[in-house]
Design a protein that fits this description.
The chain is of the alpha+beta class and about 425 residues long. About 50% of the residues lie in helices and about 10% in strands. The strands form 3 sheets. The protein has a 5-stranded mixed beta sheet. Strands 4-10-9 form a 3-stranded antiparallel beta sheet. It is globular.
């Protein structure tokens, strides 16, 4: 047995006191938390998801690519998760919405994955990008007009969370009022806390109502398209496919916008390069994807055989979490030289392999327009609280600012 594996097994002899995964997302220094894990365990570390529920956190760029590109060894189907199939994970666990089986592409492999992803790819391909850009820009301007005369706002609650909500929900014909209900449900769902399962059920109830309405009165939205798509065999697959597209599209885009705005407000180097024109908007967005990607830790893959991964002995049925934020800091693919990194898109913010995010283009469009519009319409904007007081929404998966209270100079009366 290789000495590295032998040492790793020796360390695993005592699994008490493992670091909870959420410590990597709730800390002010996530890369420091990842480094601590790597110093103790290496690039693949055991972590606790909730008391008594362990998983492997993969933090190396190469090792994550090894996992996501090999469906024969690492499955996306939670039915292969030993702790789930043996009933060790409680049926009402807060991990359920993110890690229990669902009939959508996220939780499927091979042919089933391709069948269920087809409607998503087709739906995204059908979007009119020019029409979409006009809608997003008009939405951003309307939202800013609602508060810009006041000279203060919360750029998360009043803006970053609303733009993608109205856009992504709008793809499916969901209006603003129900969009707010969706946002509340999604915040709870991504928290993986005690209220995550009731939130998931509330999300499903909203979408079932929308499906019923579109079945009775079809329109040109994606709900109608999903109802008609031959790949989706029943209402549950339709509903769960919409759940996937809305939850992934909304949460990741909100986080991307909010983290970009946070950096503009708290990092003078980043803000100066943007406002001075030395950093184009797309390069700025890429820098955020490197530094604080929308999904810090992505659940999950499940080992189909006993294997060695990054020096760790992974057993069949073990859960594997992708530490995307850590992998983006891997010195094998990323340097600290901002000039060398311009144009470098080898980050794993969108994962890789068959399950790579299919909505990168619309996600970037929403984020680019939202950030650019705020940058040009809000004058002398400053954070209204100390940078260290910016709180994050509780989640082991994401690092979205909960609030960004700001002050700015109102426009002169016209």
């Amino acid at each position: 047995m290789p000495s590295a594996t032998r040492r790793h097994r020796q360390r695993l002899a005592d699994m008490t006191g493992l670091q909870n995964l959420a410590t990597t997302t709730t800390t002010t220094d996530p890369q420091g938390a990842y480094r601590d894990l790597q110093e103790r365990w290496g690039v693949v570390a055991p972590v606790e998801l909730e008391p008594g529920i362990h998983a492997w956190l993969v933090m190396g760029h190469h090792e994550i690519c090894q996992v996501v590109r090999n469906e024969q060894l690492f499955s996306r189907d939670p039915n292969n998760w030993r702790l789930f199939s043996e009933g060790v994970v409680a049926a009402d666990s807060g991990l359920g919405p993110m890690m229990f089986p669902r009939d959508n592409a996220y939780f499927a492999d091979g042919e089933k994955h391709r069948r269920l992803r087809g409607p998503i790819d087709d739906g995204l391909e059908s979007l009119d990008e020019h029409r979409m850009a006009r809608f997003i820009r008009a939405t951003c301007v309307d939202l800013l007009r609602e508060f810009e005369s006041q000279g203060k706002a919360d750029l998360v609650a009043d803006y970053a969370a609303v733009v993608p909500m109205l856009t992504v929900a709008g793809f499916f014909g969901i209006g603003r009022e129900q969009g707010h209900e969706l946002r509340a449900a999604l915040i709870a769902l991504f928290s993986s806390a005690e209220d995550s399962q009731p939130a998931a059920h509330q999300l499903e109830r909203i979408l079932s109502g929308v499906m019923t309405a579109r079945r009775n009165a079809p329109t040109d939205d994606l709900t109608t398209a999903f109802l008609r798509h031959a790949n989706l065999r029943n209402d549950f697959e339709i509903q769960q496919s919409i759940v996937l597209m809305i939850s992934a599209g909304y949460e990741t885009t909100t986080t991307w916008i909010a983290q970009t705005l946070r950096l503009m407000l708290t990092d003078s180097r980043f803000a100066g390069r943007m406002r001075g024109g030395r950093l184009g908007i797309d390069d700025a967005l890429d820098e955020v994807l490197w530094r604080d990607p929308p999904m810090s830790n992505m659940p999950a893959r499940y080992a189909l055989v006993d294997c060695e991964l990054g020096g760790a002995h992974v057993q069949r049925g073990d859960a594997i979490i992708l530490g995307l934020s850590s992998a983006n800091n891997d010195p094998r693919v990323h340097t600290d030289d901002a000039w060398l990194e311009v144009g470098n898109r080898s980050h794993l913010a969108w994962s890789a392999g068959p399950h790579a995010c299919p909505a990168q283009r619309p996600g970037r469009m929403i984020t680019r327009i939202a950030v650019d519009t705020a940058l040009h319409r809000l004058h002398d904007v400053t954070l209204a609280i100390p940078a260290d007081d910016v709180m994050l929404l509780p989640s082991p998966w994401t690092r979205c600012p909960a609030s960004l209270p700001v002050r700015f100079t109102p426009p002169l009366p016209s």
